[in-house]
């Protein structure tokens, strides 16, 4: 799973029929300290996320296929959760 922030969405006049009902998002992966990690990825939105929201993304084929209800989904990533907060325990301190 990938933690990231939604940077925007992709508007496509024409899409393959399997993508017609899905919003496409641009997600920047982040470290737990909210620092960018690598390049942005494209993902279908399964939860109604919007720009600026922190999200969790799955990138396993089986998980994405299951979310989209397809045997062979035409995408590799899907946003599956909007993150409210992250708590990381480091000994006695919590972020």
CATH topology: OB fold (Dihydrolipoamide Acetyltransferase, E2P)
Tell me the major beta sheet: 5 strands, mixed, barrel
Shape: globular
Tell how many strands the DSSP assignment holds. 7
Describe the structure.
The protein has 95 residues and is mainly beta. It has one domain: Beta Barrel (OB fold (Dihydrolipoamide Acetyltransferase, E2P)), CATH 2.40.50.220. It has one helix at residues 61-68; strands spanning 2-10, 24-29, 41-45, 54-58, 78-82, 89-90, 93-94. Strand 6 (89-90) and strand 7 (93-94) form a beta hairpin. The protein is globular. The model has no long low-confidence stretch (mean pLDDT 87).
Topology:
Elements: E1 2-10, E2 24-29, E3 41-45, E4 54-58, H1 61-68, E5 78-82, E6 89-90, E7 93-94
State the main characteristics:
95 residues, mainly beta, OB fold (Dihydrolipoamide Acetyltransferase, E2P), 5-stranded mixed beta barrel, two-stranded antiparallel sheet, 1 helix, globular
Condensed summary:
The protein is mainly β and 95 residues long.
């Amino acid at each position: 799973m990938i933690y990231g922030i939604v940077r925007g969405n992709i508007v496509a006049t024409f899409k393959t029929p399997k993508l017609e009902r899905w919003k496409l998002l641009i997600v920047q992966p982040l470290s737990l300290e909210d620092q960018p990690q690598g390049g942005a990825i494209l993902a279908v939105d399964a939860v109604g996320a919007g720009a600026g929201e922190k999200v969790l993304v799955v990138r396993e084929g089986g998980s994405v296929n299951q979310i989209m209800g397809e045997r062979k989904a035409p995408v590799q990533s899907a946003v599956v959760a909007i993150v409210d907060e992250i708590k990381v325990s480091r000994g006695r301190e919590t972020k």
